[in-house]
Design brief:
The chain has 16 helices and no strands. By secondary structure, the protein is mainly alpha-helical. It has one domain: MFS general substrate transporter like domains (Growth Hormone, Chain: A), CATH 1.20.1250.20. It comes from Kocuria flava.
């Protein structure tokens, strides 16, 4: 399936130069490298935070669920902001907000509960990540159509790497600093670096702020293709964010110590990177993606179930299967945005719809795991839930994989 020529309207009559494209590509990857640390860093030391800050059960559920819910709430806003101010300017603002949110989570509140600042920082991070999630696929569609598979693979791999870094390094940071606060706040440093790097990108595209809004055209909300892609995203997101929020606690519940659990989760997410790097180029080369999408859905769901029920001596195998499947599943779900649209304008609108609904409903996965844990005292019920979710991801992945476009 051949992709249309790049839409260069946002970069001027002749589009951005090769050097500007290279710099933009690096920035896109580095943004992705900061979009998941808020999830995996918190869950990696959740028992320590709960004990030290005396977090009630409702606060734990809220802090693990709220970020994903906010991804759904703020995602539909991103296309409007991008039309008004330009995608690069909005991305710069989002990364600045993410930096502040990550820093706020680790600030002390003298004489008070840790919950308010944790919640404020988490809300800021969720809003910022929602904007970044929506804008990255549209920027790739607009400026990298000639390297769609490569760039999709690189930025989705960076997103997985972000989760791996948060999962693998936060517990050692806790041991090194002796407190959970700096081990969370230090994740603001790489986000701040990206803010600095995005400043020249935003300056080059400042003229987009005065450009007239793009014409409306047909709404993706009335497209069956858009809804199939969106529902595929829903069930992918239910598993993906549950991995970030709950895989480490699941392993701790099975008797794995904190350092080993963090390492296992980090390795699993590194394998997500492998899946996310390979899946988009493969999806772009295939005429349709039905078999690929369905296989990855079943692989991720099966890996999740086995991580809960499978023999503990083989836990590296189960979490490895989960990592490969989930990484590929996340990447192809995001790649569907580019493969099912003909223009960057529709790509950003589909991205807003798909991620708004996908993450909004997908957040129910982390919430339901928390509720099932509170009701049953264990993760067995969650294992049954993810068996069903994996099958549904495969069903809607099959539908979304058919070679059709959202009508424009």
């Amino acid at each position: 399936m051949r992709s249309p020529r790049p839409d260069t309207s946002a970069g001027g009559p002749s589009g951005p130069s090769r050097r500007a494209l290279l710099y933009l590509g690096v920035c896109v990857v580095l943004v992705g490298l900061n979009l998941r640390t808020v999830f995996s860093s918190f869950s990696a030391i959740l028992p320590e935070i709960t004990a030290a800050a005396d977090l009630p059960a409702w606060a734990v559920t809220l802090l693990t669920t709220a970020p994903v819910t906010l991804l759904g709430l703020f995602a539909p806003v991103a296309p409007r902001l991008a039309r008004r101010f330009g995608a690069e300017n909005v991305l710069l603002g989002a990364m600045a907000l993410l930096t502040l949110g990550l820093l706020t989570r680790g600030l002390p509140l003298p004489g008070g509960s840790a919950v308010p600042l944790l919640l404020i920082g988490t809300v800021a991070c969720g809003a910022a990540i929602a904007l970044g999630n929506v804008l990255l696929p549209s920027i790739v569609k607009r400026d990298f159509t000639h390297r769609l598979g490569l760039m999709s693979g690189l930025y989705t791999t960076a997103i997985c790497a972000s989760a791996a870094l948060g999962a693998g390094l936060t517990y050692p940071l806790l041991q090194a600093t002796g407190s959970w606060r700096p081990s969370l706040a230090l994740w603001a440093a790489p986000a701040a670096l990206v803010v600095v790097l995005l400043v020249p990108v935003a300056r080059r595209h400042r003229s987009a702020a005065s450009a007239p809004p793009a014409p409306g055209g047909p709404s993706p909300w009335r497209s069956p293709v858009a809804w199939q892609v969106t529902l595929f995203m829903v069930f992918q997101a239910m598993m993906s964010f549950s991995v970030f929020a709950w895989l480490a606690p699941i392993l701790r519940d099975r008797g794995v110590d904190g350092a080993a659990a963090g390492l296992i989760v980090a390795v699993s997410i590194v394998l997500q990177m492998t899946g996310s790097l390979v899946a988009p180029p493969l999806a772009v080369r295939l005429r349709d993606q039905r078999v690929l999408n369905a296989a990855l859905g079943l692989m991720a769901g099966g890996g999740f179930v086995l991580s809960i029920f499978g023999p503990l001596p083989l836990i590296w195998v189960w979490t490895g299967l989960l990592g490969l499947g989930q990484g590929g599943l996340t990447a192809v779900a995001l790649t569907m945005i580019a493969l099912r649209t003909r223009s960057a304008a529709m790509a950003v609108r589909l991205s807003g719809m798909m991620q708004g609904v996908g993450y909004g409903l997908g957040s129910s996965g982390t919430f339901l795991v928390g509720q099932l844990l509170a009701l049953t005292g264990g993760f067995a019920a969650a294992g049954g839930m993810f068996a069903v979710v994996g099958v549904l991801a495969a069903v809607f992945g099959w539908q979304a994989g058919r070679p059709r476009y959202v009508r424009e």
